[in-house]
Amino acid sequence: MNGTLDAALVAAYGNSAPRYTSYPPATQFHSQFGAGELADAIGAHDPAQPWSLYVHIPFCASVCYYCACNKIVTKHTERSGAYIARLGEELKLLAPLLGRRPALKQLHWGGGTPTFLSQDEMRVLMGLIAERFALLEGDEGEYSIEIDPRHAPDDTLHLLRALGFNRLSFGIQDFDPRVQTAIHREQPYALVARVFATARKLGFQSLSTDLIYGLPHQSRESFAQTVEQLLTLSPERISLFNYAHLPERFAPQRRIQAADLPAADVKLGILGDTIDRLRAAGYVYIGLDHFAKADDELAVAQQERTLGRNFQGYTTNGGLDVLGIGASAVSRIGNVYSQNAADLEEYEASLDRPALPVRRGFSLNGDDLLRREVITDLLCHMNLDVPAFERKHNLSFRTYFASELMGLGPMQHDGLVDIDENRIQVTPRGQLLVRAICAVFDRYLRASNRRQFSRVV
Ligand code: SF4
């Protein structure tokens, strides 16, 4: 065990809490926010600043039983063509607000499964984006796409590189065939290794992978084997997610037998073993469930305090405004969050009118902004520079956050945080429980049902 986490701490602080990909969490978004508010936010964007664009592709060819994402499982590949036409319409409606082809520093296609698209559709979609944004030359931009190794033949990878993508992220989850069968995601190590080899040859700069612990039939030994196999591929980034079994909320999870899931102590053992092994292999623990090689941009951004957090998780260039297009996509622009209709029919019907498909959002007030900054600093840097915060906002931290500092008392006693007049520092012991530490600063959590969020560990 890694010595930073024990069962008593998990019992005390491992309860449900938001992942803070936004503050306030998306559960606070409301329907009084609409297209007008989004237009105002885009209008207030500093034209000298480049954009980050997120494109949501909701389709998957088959369902993974653990999945809790917003997706549409279909064999009807023709559905994506109609969807791309709507993405084009959405970009057309946004164009007058964005001004003439602003620079695009970051681009991410997520899902669902973006590799559900045919090669022609990928070309068309990138063309639609390039009509509205100036893509940066060479590898100046960070352009990433989530790929399913089962749908990523060599020619697709060639095309993605030619279209300008320079980063790939892969769902791996577990290499054990027994686990893969139980989660309905069969992708042998040899297949993933081939995709990696091709991606390396083509010069993709950063390969990012997801693992999930807590899946059926996993044991400490079996997962250790998965981690060793993954390390042979040497990905730049590794995410290690905790599977939350909530079959009453997520229908695909009803295909997973609760009796096959590892016990809580086994899960904790897997987590501790994996953290130890990844650190020994030279990965930096960025925070929450993310690890990166020491020279990866994510680790460098953390060193340089430019790491940020958005709906894709940790991100370099955290200060960029993010525009999200597609069903359910979220934008984060200045002081607002805006979310599109998650329901595909509603999203498409809105664009057919045509109208921007915004369904809900949130405008942050002064208090929200202060709390967002505290939570972001704790999540991204594991500390808060109190005097700098006070100077920036012209307030007394001790007075403004008096009740939160009291709330942190038990965590300080248990060694999760060190607090003095200059700094709130998350300790190595507190790092895995940082969501619980952030939750102390969450004004909305007190009034909400915590069970809608996943467990911290
Ligand atoms: S895990 Fe990913 S590929 Fe699998 S069903 Fe969910 S969105 Fe689709």
- Which sheet architecture does the biggest sheet show? 10 strands, mixed
Question: What is the architecture of the largest domain at the second tier of CATH?
Answer: Alpha-Beta Horseshoe
Which term fits the overall shape? globular
- Give the N-to-C terminal Cα separation: 15 Å
- Average pLDDT, all residues: 94
**CATH class identity of the largest domain:** Alpha Beta
In CATH, the topology of the largest domain is named pyruvate-formate lyase- activating enzyme
The hetero compounds bound to this protein are: iron/sulfur cluster
**Helical residue percent band:** 25-40%
- Corresponding CATH superfamily of the largest domain: tm_1862 like domain
Count of distinct strands: 20
Write the layout of secondary structure elements.
Blueprint (H helix, E strand, L loop, with lengths): L6 H7 L21 H9 L7 E7 L1 E2 L11 E2 L5 H20 L4 E9 L7 H14 L1 E2 L6 E6 L6 H9 L4 E7 L3 H7 L5 H14 L3 E8 L6 H14 L3 E6 L21 H17 L2 E5 L2 E4 L3 H7 L4 E3 L2 E3 L5 E5 L4 E4 L2 E5 L3 H9 L5 E6 L2 H16 L1 E3 H8 L3 H4 L1 H6 L1 H5 L3 E4 L2 E4 L7 H6 L18
Parallel strand pairs: 1-4, 1-14, 2-3, 4-5, 4-6, 6-7, 7-8, 8-9
Antiparallel strand pairs: 9-11, 10-11, 12-13, 15-16, 16-17, 18-20, 19-20
Description:
The chain is of the alpha/beta class. It has two domains: 1-14 and 365-448, Orthogonal Bundle (Arc Repressor Mutant, subunit A); 25-325, pyruvate-formate lyase- activating enzyme, CATH 3.80.30. Helix content is 38%, strand content 21%. Strands 1, 4, 5, 6, 7, 8, 9, 10, 11 and 14 form a ten-stranded mixed sheet that branches. α4 links the parallel β4 and β5 (134-135). The longest helix has 20 residues, at 79-98.
